[in-house]
Design brief:
The protein is α/β, with parallel strands linked by helices. Helices cover 38% and strands 15% of the residues. 37% of the residues are buried. Strands 3-2-1-4-5-7-6 form a seven-stranded mixed β-sheet.
Length: 270
């Protein structure tokens, strides 16, 4: 078996997400089931996440990951678009684990080592996608990625739904704006974009166990992500983590959590 290229530090954060999804999938009352998540973690030589992590901040991050996964699952399926674009897809297996309407195309963009690692594990498990899946090696900081997406079959004239899950926090404000500007140029009116509301990473609590990940955070567009979207052709709706916890019947370890998620609709050009 060919050994995939090593994952970059940022790409390895996808394994942390897989740990959270494996943990949730093992619960007797899961909000979602990802049958492949544990395989990614064990293939990387890591232990599955402990059921009771030490710090309150770590517990809040796990709750965030669980609730946002279910929220994005629900919103992607409700979007009514047959073109789905997963930006920095990481170890996302929605193309395999969700029931998609016939004719749906799922485009997964990420660095080649990430896609190679995922391909090796999923093929070894005999996983079969439930939509037409296109894995496109791409660096989102390379301005040519939109052209490559179109060349792979994406049609900018038709409605689409975009997911930028756990992405912008690893980008500077300028990089995040460039990525979202490119998305805006490809998204037909009525298209949807799902992402997290930015945060002030300078106020992130200190946790030695998470320091390796937090050190990679750049903050993205910060707390005014929805304002940027509104000023650049989108109509955003913000849903707080607390509201999601209430909607899905999950008590939060920190009821004062300020995390939030955005679903934005592309407005017609004037």
């Amino acid at each position: 078996m060919t050994t995939p290229e090593p994952l970059s530090p940022v790409s390895r954060t996808a394994l942390s997400v897989a740990r959270v999804r494996a943990y949730e999938s093992s619960r007797p009352d899961p909000l979602f089931v990802d049958p492949y998540a544990a395989a990614f973690v064990t293939a990387a030589g890591l232990e599955l996440a402990p059921s009771h992590p030490g710090s309150s901040f770590a517990r809040a991050l796990i709750a965030n990951g669980i609730l946002r996964t279910r929220f994005y699952d629900d919103r992607l399926r409700a979007a009514g678009a047959d073109q789905v674009v997963l930006l920095a897809a990481g170890l996302d297996t929605r193309a395999y684990r969700l029931d998609w309407p016939a004719g749906t195309r799922v485009f997964e963009l990420d660095l080649d080592p990430v896609l190679g690692f995922k391909k090796q594990i999923l093929e070894g498990l005999g996983a079969v996608p439930q939509a037409e899946r296109t894995a496109l090696p791409a660096d989102l900081l390379d301005p040519t990625w939109p052209e490559r997406l179109v060349a792979a079959g994406f049609d900018p004239a038709r409605r689409s739904v975009w997911l930028a899950e756990g992405l912008l926090v690893y980008l500077t404000p300028e990089e995040a704006a460039a990525v979202l500007t490119a998305v805006t140029g490809l998204a037909a009116p009525g298209s949807r974009l799902l992402l997290e509301q930015g945060r002030d990473v300078s106020r992130t609590p200190h946790d030695p166990a998470l320091a390796h990940m937090i050190a990679l955070w750049r903050g993205g567009l910060g707390p005014d992500t929805d304002g940027w979207l509104d000023g650049n052709g989108w109509t955003p709706e913000v849903t707080t983590l607390v509201r999601l916890g209430e909607a899905y019947g999950r008590a939060l370890p920190d009821p004062s959590a300020t995390s939030a998620f955005i679903e934005a609709v592309r407005r017609p050009a004037h």
